[in-house]
Amino acid sequence: MITLRRTIPFAMLTTALGVAWVAGCNDQKPAEPPPQPSASATVTAPPPPPPPPPQVTACDAVQTPALTSMIQARAATEAPGMQPEGAAICNVVPEGQSASSQVIMLQQGYCYTVLGSSLPGVTELDMQMDLDLAAGAALPVAIKPLLMTDTEAGPNGSMGAKQSCYQWPLPIPAAARVTLKARTGSGPVAAQVYKKKKAF
């Protein structure tokens, strides 16, 4: 019996082995990417909200008598012969903010002076007296809302002091308010309105 052997050329064999090796390499799984950080690890906490702006508050049991005593000591020379009109206004005012008094009823025939003081911390006190148009009756156009303003520099102020007191010119009463502003510095501020019958 004759057996025939089929020989495969060497070049064909090496080519087939090379193809099989490349195919085997391509069957390998690609490397997995590194794990990504979780969302919770990259999120930062939001910044805290800014603190609320400081508020105007009432003077305490020490600040009120200290300031009213300072004003009373000045009244003898700056509001001579005059009596307090209503209670003093006393507030702790942050820099740039204002506090207003209760309504003051201005009457014809009376003369008005306002004295203001502050405790250390306030370096420039501003004051003014305005008509409270919301509380008063209709007034002639010639009457301007701003009645008096403080022109002094420093932690104390006055309006209509000494012989320059303000006279309400109309026969009907009018409502007004005094406003105190800490232009520079912060701290307790106070003012007192004085009045007297004007001699004609």
Task: Give your account of this protein's structure.
The protein has helices at 10-26, 39-42, 63-78; strands at 57-58, 83-84, 89-93, 98-100, 104-106, 110-118, 122-131, 146-149, 157-159, 166-167, 174-185, 187-197. With 200 residues, the protein is α+β, with helices and mostly antiparallel strands. The longest helix has 17 residues, at 10-26. The protein is elongated. The termini are far apart.
Topology:
Elements: H1 10-26, H2 39-42, E1 57-58, H3 63-78, E2 83-84, E3 89-93, E4 98-100, E5 104-106, E6 110-118, E7 122-131, E8 146-149, E9 157-159, E10 166-167, E11 174-185, E12 187-197
Antiparallel strand pairs: 1-3, 2-12, 3-12, 4-11, 5-11, 6-9, 6-10, 6-12, 7-8, 7-11
How much of the sequence lies in strands comes to: 25-35%
Compute the number of helices: 3
* Largest β sheet strand count, sense and barrel closure: 7 strands, antiparallel
Mean pLDDT: 83
Which value, in Å, is the CA radius of gyration?
A: 43 Å
What descriptive keywords fit this protein?
single chain; 200 residues; alpha+beta; seven-stranded antiparallel sheet; five-stranded antiparallel sheet; 3 helices; 18% helix
Task: Provide a concise account of the structure shown.
This protein has 200 residues and is of the alpha+beta class. It is 18% helix and 33% strand.
